[in-house]
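Inverse folding, one chain.
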């Protein structure tokens, strides 16, 4: 399809904005030349964006089994709640008495998510998961500094963690100590015990981890870290599998972040918005960023945290994401939240068992919300790689799963069906994978050259990476 600039015709346009109803002030920073915007009619604009939408695959189009990202269907009632004028037409600097409804959203959401995670307090300031990780690590740093303990300079991160964990630790000023996994995909307790010591500030653990397993030694892991004087951080990005079933706080964790834009009903992907609220135990509450919605004689008001690390984002985070999450939780209720977690696990294991007929699983244990296959046997016997299978899925109207992650599995494909897919949809997904495997044996070149039915077929990915064209080149 054509770019919007390629549709441009000089002199063409349309009036989309109302006339300015205030005095026009020309600032000193006014441009010396007009913006080079495309000149198109309303008809051109409408068709252009319709074509873009048609060329984009989302959860409304078909299966989206992107592992570790929970790309699921989100009930539209939650979007409607977040679109109510009482939530959208407010200003963060309004007097507190005029935004009591918004403060109740923050207050009630905090209580619900503290109950789900087993924490005592929560901030909604962080704008995404990695931002939440960074905020949680700043809480850990503030705790150690408040005790005058400057020896603790290291954060332990298992190799099955999310990739942002070590990056966040380094941003917070820590050295990262990597711990290997056992052949069963869990943390090596012996290596963990060797690494934990007087210089350990804390542990960052993704649970369930990136191979889709719940670590059976979770209580022993937190005990080792606490006995060494460190704190335990729980990456809750995969809470989809355990919400309402088990709580990080009961496992011995001191800090946790959630991904509201994955687990709790805000559409994930496309650049935002996101929300990565951070919960903590009572002894860390004083260090939280921003302000809390507290109960007073005249209603709710915003109260400073006495030892706050300071603001990590303007105002109160992505507020409308919190509205969606609260609506989601209230609609499901305690029983519905548990059922959603159970369905996420059931669906993943159903697909895992079906695909085990043809593909090798990286780990044979019962998984949680996602599982990882290895295409190493296909690569060695047929020359078919993980990326070949992923590309072939496009011909079946299925978004590819996560490729080549986690790094501890060679030729990895990570699949997360999510709890919102029906059994019929799961069967279609499984049949597509199985048919691709049969075709790989009969006609491997067809798989290597896939996709065949998409607007753009197999790309020269090396060329695109080394010589990217990142902007439109004007001819005049």
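Residues assigned per position:
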């Amino acid at each position: 399809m054509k770019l919007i600039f390629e549709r441009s015709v000089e002199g063409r346009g349309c009036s989309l904005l109302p006339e300015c109803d205030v005095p026009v002030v020309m600032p000193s920073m006014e441009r010396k030349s007009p913006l080079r915007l495309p000149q198109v009619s309303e008809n051109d604009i409408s068709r252009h964006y319709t074509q873009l939408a048609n060329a984009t695959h989302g959860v409304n189009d078909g299966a989206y089994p992107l592992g570790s990202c929970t790309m699921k269907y989100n009930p539209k009632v939650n979007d409607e709640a977040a679109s109510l004028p009482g939530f959208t037409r407010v200003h963060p600097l309004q007097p507190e008495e005029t935004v009591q409804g918004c403060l109740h959203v923050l207050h009630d959401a905090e209580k619900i998510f503290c109950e789900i995670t087993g924490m005592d307090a929560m901030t909604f300031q962080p704008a995404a998961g990695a931002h939440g990780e960074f905020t949680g690590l700043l809480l850990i740093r503030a705790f150690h500094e408040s005790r005058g303990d400057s020896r603790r300079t290291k954060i332990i991160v298992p190799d099955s963690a999310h990739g942002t964990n070590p990056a966040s630790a380094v941003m917070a000023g820590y050295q990262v100590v990597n711990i290997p996994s056992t052949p069963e995909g869990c943390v090596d307790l012996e290596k963990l015990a060797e690494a934990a010591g007087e210089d350990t500030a804390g542990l960052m653990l993704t649970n369930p981890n990136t191979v889709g397993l719940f670590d059976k030694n979770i209580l022993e892991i937190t005990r080792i870290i606490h006995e060494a004087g460190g704190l335990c951080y729980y990456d809750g990005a995969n809470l989809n599998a355990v919400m309402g079933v088990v709580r990080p706080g009961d496992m011995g964790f001191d800090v946790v972040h959630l991904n509201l834009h994955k687990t709790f009903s805000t559409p994930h992907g496309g650049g935002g918005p996101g929300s990565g609220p951070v919960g903590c135990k009572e002894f860390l509450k004083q260090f939280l960023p921003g302000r809390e919605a507290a109960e007073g004689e005249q209603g709710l008001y915003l109260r400073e945290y006495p030892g706050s690390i300071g603001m990590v984002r303007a105002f109160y985070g992505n507020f409308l994401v919190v509205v969606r999450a609260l609506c989601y939780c209230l609609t499901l209720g305690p029983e519905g939240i548990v059922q959603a977690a159970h369905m996420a696990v059931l669906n993943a294991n159903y697909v895992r068992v079906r695909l085990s007929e043809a593909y090798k699983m990286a780990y044979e244990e019962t998984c949680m919300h996602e599982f990882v296959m290895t295409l190493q046997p296909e690569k060695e016997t047929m020359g078919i790689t993980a990326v070949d299978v992923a590309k072939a899925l496009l011909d079946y109207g299925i978004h590819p799963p996560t490729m080549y992650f986690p790094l501890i599995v060679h030729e990895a494909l990570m699949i997360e069906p999510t709890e919102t897919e029906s059994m019929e949809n799961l069967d279609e997904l499984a049949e597509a994978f199985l048919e691709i495997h049969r075709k790989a044996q009969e006609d491997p070149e067809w798989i290597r050259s896939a996709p065949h039915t998409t607007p753009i077929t197999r790309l020269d990915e090396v060329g695109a990476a080394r010589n990217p064209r990142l902007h439109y080149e004007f001819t005049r």
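The CA atoms of residues 58 and 452 lie 20 Å apart. The first strand starts at residue 121 and ends at 123.
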